[in-house]
Amino acid sequence: MSNRIKNEAELLATFSNPNYPGLEQYRHPFFNERNGQVWATDGNVLISVDPHRLSGDYPKLKLGEPVGFAKRTCDLTVTMSMLAETLASVPTVKEQIEEQPAIECEECNGTGEVVWEYRSLHRTHQMEAVCPVCDGRGIFAKAVYKETGRTIPDPKAKIEVGNAILLVRDVQKLVGAMDFFRADSVHLVRDEGQTTWIIDEDIFIILMTVFKNNDPVTRLKKGG
Ligand SMILES: [Zn+2]
Questions:
Q1: Among 1, 65, 171, 221, which is least packed by CB within 10 angstroms?
Q2: How confident is the model at residue 70 (pLDDT cuts 50, 70, 90)?
């Protein structure tokens, strides 16, 4: 019997960032030649799936594993109800959606700088300068946001799990993946430097930790 994942693109897309500037490995899922697993990551969250559970073809890239990748520091069963109760307890914000995107200067692609080329007798020179079209502002109008009237957990609020501090935004991706697999619980096996969450023997998720600073944190709840 096949235990392949259905709708894998939908799952993997939540862990990548198609608009990530520069680094290709953060924009789409890929087959990691370093360890033979399919990875989707945006640099803050990562899902690793054994390819025998997948149907798609993925571009091949080589990406090193984070420091201490396989290190185990804890063994904690975390249930969906613990995570749901925790997310229901964090500070909230008013949800906003982008009504109009920012209007960028086309001359400088929003950077505010242009490069001039000029030719002297024997050489071509390049010189960076403030964009003359937008006077270095890069954009002509900021994006316009509108409130939806809904209140949502603050994506940047912090949750404390074991020795780790995590962002709500990232924990929601873990919960989304658990929903996807209809998993009632996950095993947390690392809670220092990064967190490692085992869904099953072929699938795990890493959430990067953040600094506590002086921000309020919500401790993981005990669940119902
Ligand atoms: Zn410009």
A1: 1
A2: confident
- For residue 166, the surrounding DSSP H or E stretch is strand 164-167
Shared-domain flag, residues 157 and 72 = yes
For the chain, what is the domain count? 2
Centre of ligand 1 from the C-alpha of residue 109, in Å: 7
CA 149 to chain centre: 25
**103 CA distance to ligand 1 middle (Å):** 11
- The alpha carbon of 27 and the centre of ligand 1 are apart by a number of angstroms equal to 26
- 127 to each of 121, 122, 123, 137, how far by Cα in Å? 16, 16, 13, 18
29 domain residue, yes or no:
yes
The reply to whether 118 and 171 lie within a common domain is no
Q: How confident is the model at residue 1 (pLDDT cuts 50, 70, 90)?
A: very low
User: How distant, in Å, are the alpha carbons of 1, 26, 107, 113 from that of 172?
Assistant: 31, 19, 39, 38
Task: Give the Å distance between the CA of 132 and the centre of ligand 1.
Answer: 7
Q: Strand pairing partners for 80?
A: none
DSSP 67-87: TTTT-----EEEEHHHHHHHH
Question: Residue 42 belongs to a domain with what CATH number?
Answer: 3.10.150
d(CA 175, CA 170): 9
Q: How many CB atoms lie within 10 A of CB 106?
A: 10
Distance in Å, CA 33 to ligand 1 centroid: 41
* Per-residue pLDDT, 126: 83
